[in-house]
Design goal:
RINT1_Tip20, single chain
Length: about 800
């Protein structure tokens, strides 16, 4: 019994040993009691891990106790201290901190001493630094003066070199010296030496003018010998001139030298243009809107343009009779003639010289640009003076558009270079153009609708060209819109083009409203020629607008409208509609097409309703025939059309012929198909469902329909019976043999009874399959039963 007691004592000692360091570290804390549960959990986990549930393992408790006591002693040596000592690690750390603090104090003392010495040294050196700065400033000033004098000396040397070259007729060396001056001038642009730069510019301008004047004089003499300018078409001479070779050599030399002088000339021209900005022009013309930036004209071409410019200003400015606002075609045609007359000379004489000189310009294009500058100034002046005269303004616009067309087409002027159209895009001029365009279009609409032949087709006697049967007013109106399109098509600005497109849409809607007003006046007689002409007009306009919606030009405008967000064109459209336009699923004319289609549908419905009203009156006597008492077919020698059907047939025939004559092909297709559908319903209701039929009556009905009515529509399609589905299938059912009719009726009754009981038996074919075998596809089984009950020839009856 001693062993268990010893084990218990050992366990108690073990527990005290485990808890001793914990409680030792927890003294002075209020949370010991709160954490008692955690300590007990820790103890239980430790015992479970070391001892477990095996009682035999309790003999190892003594070894575990010894191990824990050793660990406890090590911890006490590291943490617990005597009253006069500290832990070794803490003591070492404190010693290192004290040494570091002493080192920092020593460094701070040395830093303060060095800083004091440096400050004293800087104070002692400051007078020397001030003297050195003054000396360097003087050196820099002297150096700038030296550079200034050297630059001035270089300018004087260049000037002297130019003078010496001109005295010895060394033009090439003089040009190179002038180019050096121009390069030096460009280099001095960022400097503050305004006086030096002014002196250089004056020197450059002086020598450049002397060289240019000398070359210009010589060049003009050569051009005179070559009969320039060509005011009239040049005459080809068969015998060359005696000094032709010498003139050609002089021409090439002078053109090459003028090209070499181009850089300095461009520099002087740009500076003169910059200095003149904001200064009013001396010409009476108002300045035109600035065209897109283009490089300066080639210097030889500038000289060649001088006599043409003098002639232009002489004839088309001032009080000359040729200067009249009502005749812009005079100066526009004159410029085109000069371009045409000069083409051969420019391409054969000047262009090869430019190519050999390495110039990348086209002589003909440069000449056109120079002449265009004269025309642009004149057109801008005239346009601003014609804003209050509609007739003359329209004439000017027409002439400008024609000039632009001939310039681009006949003379191959590049599209990237500005012509005259940008002048028409100035706000006041563009707005005036739109206003006048609308005013004249409205006046023409009033005139065309009030003319005597407004509702007759000019191609009515030519069947091949009169498929649409468009009345003259509609064709004239669409021609008017097409002319407007051709006028603004070549404008270089999509935004301006969209303004004209908005005007066209407004005009189309205005014309639609006018057609609606006239239609309401003619609606009392929808079968009249004018009513049908209005319907043809609506269909014609709708067809043309649909074609325009697929046109490349209008598709490009559509994309431009979406990208620019033009409110005038896209106003009122939602996000979905704009998205459809962006993906090219819709068109800019969709809204108008919807309105036109609605008007066309209303007019077509009224036309068919009026026609069917007349035909229905003729159908009633036919439906009142004695279908029940007609003899069988075998009792008749020959089947003939029912006498009561003759008025109906004649009315249908006459109306079809009339509609075919007055309606366009597409409208007539809609008309006769709509008429057939309505007539099918009327015959089915008024004749078939309103009577009982004997065998002879059914045969007569089938004869009247298949041999008389359907052939009336056979002129316009191959299988007209397909448009009379109710009547055709009714004739099939009424003409069935007695046995087939009985079997079909029984089948339908059984099918309906099974459906009433809850569904047909699995595997049984539906009744529709039996009806399809007979050729009945439109009528429902219940309708077939009704028709079978209209038969009078049943056994026992």
């Amino acid at each position: 019994m001693a062993a268990p007691t010893t084990t218990v004592q050992t366990m108690n000692s073990l527990t005290d040993t485990l808890l001793k360091p914990v409680y030792a570290n927890s003294q002075g804390m209020d949370s010991v009691s709160a954490d008692s549960g955690t300590l007990q959990d820790y103890l239980l986990d430790f015992m479970e891990k070391e001892v477990g549930s095996d009682l035999k393992s309790l003999k190892n408790v003594g070894h575990l106790l010894e191990k824990l006591r050793e660990e406890n002693s090590v911890l006490e040596e590291q943490v617990l201290t005597d009253a006069s000592s500290m832990p070794p690690k803490v003591s070492a750390a404190l010693s290192a901190a004290e040494e570091a603090s002493c080192s920092v104090e020593d460094l701070l003392q040395r830093e303060a001493l060095i800083s004091k010495r440096l400050h004293q040294h800087l104070q002692d050196a400051q007078p020397w630094m001030d003297k050195l700065d003054q000396t360097l400033h003087k050196v820099n000033t002297i150096e700038r003066h030296v550079k200034y004098l050297r630059c001035l000396q270089h300018i004087e040397e260049l000037s002297a070199a130019v003078q010496q070259c001109l005295m010895t007729s060394s033009v090439w060396e003089a040009i190179r010296a002038v180019d050096s001056m121009a390069a030096l001038d460009a280099g001095l642009n960022q400097s503050g030496c305004s006086h030096l730069q002014g002196f250089l510019q004056e020197t450059l301008h002086f020598w450049h003018k002397i060289i240019k004047d000398r070359l210009t004089t010589d060049f003009e003499k050569v051009l005179i010998q070559l009969h320039w300018p060509f005011i009239a078409p040049p005459i080809q001479t068969l015998t060359p001139t005696a000094n032709g070779q010498e003139i050609s050599s002089q021409l090439e030399l002078l053109v090459s030298q003028l090209l070499a002088l181009q850089n300095s000339d461009d520099l002087i021209s740009q500076r003169a243009l910059a200095s003149c900005q904001g200064v009013p022009a001396t010409q009476p013309a108002s300045p035109a809107p600035p065209p897109p930036q283009a490089p300066p004209l080639c210097l030889p071409i500038q000289i060649m343009l001088l006599p043409l410019s003098k002639r232009f200003r002489y004839h088309f400015y001032g009080n000359r009779q040729t200067n009249t606002l009502s005749k812009p075609e005079w100066y526009l045609t004159q410029v085109l003639m000069w371009i045409g007359n000069s083409k051969t000379f420019m391409e054969e004489r000047i262009q090869p010289i430019l190519d050999r000189a390495g110039a990348t310009t086209s002589a003909m294009v440069e000449l056109c640009r120079g002449l265009l500058s004269l025309v642009q100034e004149k057109v801008a002046s005239d346009a601003s003076r014609l804003l209050y005269d509609d007739a003359l303004f329209c004439h000017l616009v027409e002439e400008v558009l024609q000039f632009e067309k001939e310039l681009r087409g006949n003379h191959s002027f590049p599209a990237v270079l500005p012509g005259l159209l940008h002048l028409l895009l100035e706000d006041a001029i563009l707005q005036k153009w739109l206003t006048v365009e609308k005013k004249m279009a409205v006046e023409k609409m009033d005139a065309m609708l009030s003319s005597e032949g407004a509702w007759s087709s000019q191609y009515k006697d030519i069947s091949d060209m009169d498929e649409l049967k468009a009345p003259d007013c509609a064709e004239t109106f669409m021609t008017l819109l097409q002319v407007i399109t051709e006028r603004y098509r070549s404008l270089p600005c999509p935004s301006a083009q969209l303004k004209f497109l908005g005007l066209q849409r407004e005009l189309v809607d205005d014309f639609r409203i006018r057609l609606t007003q006239v239609m309401k006046e003619e609606s009392r007689c929808p079968l009249g020629a004018r009513y049908c002409a209005i319907l043809n007009a609506v269909n014609y306009i709708s067809t043309i607008l649909g074609d325009w919606g697929d046109n490349v030009f209008f598709l490009q405008l559509q994309q431009a409208a979406v990208s620019l967000g033009e409110e005038g064109v896209l106003g009122g459209l939602g996000v979905m509609e704009v998205g459809r336009l962006a993906s090219l699923e819709g068109s800019l004319f969709e809204g108008l097409l919807g309105l036109l289609d609605r008007l066309k549908g209303d007019m077509m419905g009224r036309l068919l309703e009026w026609t069917m009203r007349e035909i229905t009156e003729k159908v009633r006597p036919y439906g009142q025939d004695r279908w029940l008492s007609l003899p069988p077919q075998q009792d008749q020698s020959t089947m003939t059309l029912s006498s009561s059907a003759c008025p109906m047939m004649l009315c249908v025939r006459d109306r079809l012929l009339n509609l075919h004559q007055v309606l366009s092909f597409s409208l007539f297709q809609l008309a006769w198909q709509g008429l057939a559908e309505r007539l099918d319903n009327v015959l089915y209701q008024e004749v078939v469902l309103s009577n009982h039929f004997s065998e002879g009556g059914a045969a007569q009905l089938q004869f009247d329909m298949t041999r008389n009515l359907f052939p009336l529509f056979g002129h316009y399609c191959k299988r007209p019976e397909n448009f009379f589905k109710h009547v055709k299938e009714a004739c099939i059912l009424l003409s069935l043999s007695v046995g087939s009719a009985i079997l079909l009726r029984n089948l339908l009754k059984e099918s309906m009874e099974e459906e009433a009981r809850g569904g047909a038996a699995a595997g049984d074919p539906p009744p529709e399959s039996a009806l399809n075998e007979l050729g009945v596809y439109c009528l429902a089984p219940c309708d077939v039963l009704i028709l079978l009950n209209l038969r009078a020839s049943w056994p026992g009856q």
